[in-house]
Amino acid sequence: MFEHIERVPGDAILGLIEAFKKDTNPRKVDLGVGVYRDAHGNTPVLKSVKAAEERLLEQEETKSYIGSHGDPAYGNAILSLVLGEGSPLLTDKRASATQSPGGTGALRLAADFIRTNLPGKAIWMSNPTWPNHHGIFDAAGIERHSYPYVSASNTLDFDGMMDSLGRIPEGDIVLLHACCHNPSGFDLDKQQWQQVLNVVKQRNLMPLIDFAYQGFGDGLDEDAYGVRLLAEQLDEVIITSSCSKNFGLYRERTGCLILVAKNEEQMNNVRSQVAIVARENYSNPPSHGAAVVSTILGDEALRGMWLEEVDDMRGRINQLRSGFVDAMAPHGLAEKFDFIKQQRGMFSYTGLSRDQVERLRNDYSIYMVSSGRANVAGLSSDVLEYVAQAIADVSD
Ligand code: PMP
């Protein structure tokens, strides 16, 4: 029965990783893969995570099932992190948290929840968006559409976005990136979030906010601006959160689905439905990553250590953004690339064409995704000049 099954091409990024590994050029630079890198090109385990793991190793008493919603201590810690300490949504018991296998798992929970509980609703996502958004909602059988987000001249197309959102059928779902838009790096400012809130209210849309990079843009609270605005001003919001980047827990699969409902009773109703979706997908979430996170967030010293580590990661990314633009100055291209400083998060749409990306790879061993998306964290002060020179060369 397997005879007719064709091989499909692997993930483009995986191909890029392979090609990079095989490249023998000592000057090679990897700007492709979507993980944080330190100045030495490593993705280390955070010190706060190591310390929490040591504690857990000693104190963990059981490997018994954790329950479909996961550990309540983790859920509460994520609710405070995402919605804000002392948020009225928490005192009013309007928010439910379900521990999930990564942000991806939270998105799949959201998708299955939507399919079974909001049947017939379509989802609208930015063009471009993280490609897995397409796959996850397709797999759940949800009709998918897009709204404009990046213009042909590589700027945020906010007018196009608003125009499109204003015409979405009432009651449909709109997927928004909370911060650090992947792949473009273009984020909404406070005024623009307010306008999004207005159109969501007007059209009675259901926002699904993907929050995968909290702390990587302007700060943990700053990055939550749009999430908190919508969650506080609307009756109902869906949020998916990930600890992969800000806790560096990628492979531990640590995320959370948050549902905000109109009141405590409705919150408990939707929460009961999420438990079913989780049970049918994987029964219980993996425990370790979430236990690490709740240990860190629940301990003053570990929390302080982690806050510093998040600040360091964010600081490094933003420094590299300015450093890159400065390195373009001797080539007369600082102004052209100034937008890199305004973008936020690990990723940048550089505006480089497919052809230019290919030349960078073939002639300079600089690897990025063919869309021109670069992982800024893959840069370091040692390679800035080399990369700037190469980009200047292919920009002729
Ligand atoms: N959403 C976006 C926009 C992402 O970029 C990612 C990670 N690449 C995720 C969600 C999911 O992250 P994870 O499943 O690794 O927590």
UniProtKB/TrEMBL annotation:
Keywords associated with the record: Aminotransferase, Pyridoxal phosphate, Transferase
Any single Gene Ontology cellular-component annotation: cytosol
Top-level taxon of origin: Bacteria
Transmembrane spans: none
Domain Aminotransferase class I/classII large, residue spans: 27-391
UniProt entry tagged with the keyword Transferase: yes
GO molecular function, one term: L-tyrosine-2-oxoglutarate transaminase activity
Assembly, per entry: Homodimer.
Protein name: Aspartate/tyrosine/aromatic aminotransferase
Naturally occurring in which organism (per UniProt): Larsenimonas rhizosphaerae
